[in-house]
Design goal:
This protein has about 250 residues and is an all-beta fold. The chain folds into two domains: about 100 residues, Alpha-Beta Horseshoe (Leucine-rich repeat, LRR (right-handed beta-alpha superhelix)), CATH 3.80.10.10; about 110 residues, Ribonuclease Inhibitor (Leucine-rich repeat, LRR (right-handed beta-alpha superhelix)). The chain is built from no helices and twelve strands. It is elongated, with a radius of gyration of 21 Å. The two termini are about 20 Å apart.
Length: about 250
């Protein structure tokens, strides 16, 4: 058993997980990123103390059910695989705080994600999402949602009913109009660049916007008693700001 309760087998070109790893029952962190894995042994569920599991950059077409038996998981990396869905058994991971499912083959956000009641961070960018399920509003602990590089033609209305959100990223979609986000009391950052939008989302004072017209006021500007409309459509875009990913919280 490793002294630090961590095993890192990333980038080993593994096609299967060595079975002896499943005997390390006190293991807390297991990194299997950047391999050629397509399945995991049922014995994986013996790792009942596991809190962080990284399966990103592999060849999974389905999430192995043994993963859903790891009830202490709080961070799960599934990005850059070939997942088209997630199993209903994922709902068993009620301690999950951070879920990465970016760069898969998801055409819709699986409803089971809406049952992860303690989820704080959801990375679902670079899929083929066109909408979000209305039940997403059940995630009252959700603080940041990353949806860049999808096929959203409209701003997801469910996000307007999630007052705890601090970060909304809808960069690189197909959104043409943004509703006001000024009523979201927890919002700190909204990223909406690279959309064919004709307006910037209105936000409360102190909220950072990253995108076209981010430094402009979307409201008409008054001068000498007359209202002068600001033409946002014709203004040149400012240079895109660097998008900062949040640090992963410890469990």
């Amino acid at each position: 058993m490793p002294v630090d309760k961590m095993v890192d087998l990333s980038g080993r070109q593994l096609r299967r997980l060595p079975l002896h790893i499943c005997s390390f029952k006190e293991l807390v962190k297991l990194y299997l990123s950047n391999n050629n894995l397509t399945q995991l042994p049922p014995e994986l569920e013996q790792l009942q103390n596991l809190q962080i599991l990284a399966l990103d950059f592999n060849n999974f077409r389905a999430l192995p059910l043994a993963v859903c038996a790891l009830k202490q998981l709080c961070i799960l990396y599934l990005g850059n695989n070939k997942l088209c869905s997630l199993p209903l058994e994922l709902r068993l991971l009620q301690n999950l705080r951070t879920l990465w499912i970016e760069s898969n083959c998801l055409q819709q956000l699986p409803e089971v994600v809406c049952e992860l009641s303690l989820l704080k961070t959801l990375h679902a960018g670079s899929n083929a999402l066109r909408t979000l399920p209305t039940h997403l509003r059940r995630l009252r602990e959700l603080r940041s949602i990353w949806l860049s590089g999808n096929l959203l033609a409209e701003f997801p209305s469910v996000l307007l009913h999630m007052p705890s959100l601090e970060v909304i990223d809808v960069d690189r979609n197909a959104i043409r109009f943004f509703p006001s986000l000024a009523h979201l009391p927890g919002l700190k950052l909204v990223i909406y660049d690279h959309n064919p939008c004709r307006n910037a989302p209105k936000v409360a004072k102190g909220v950072r916007r990253v995108g076209r017209w981010s430094e402009e006021s979307p409201e008409p500007r008054k001068r000498s008693g007359a209202v002068i409309e600001i033409s946002l459509i014709e203004r040149p875009s400012p240079p895109p700001a660097n998008k900062a990913e949040p640090e992963v919280e410890a469990c």
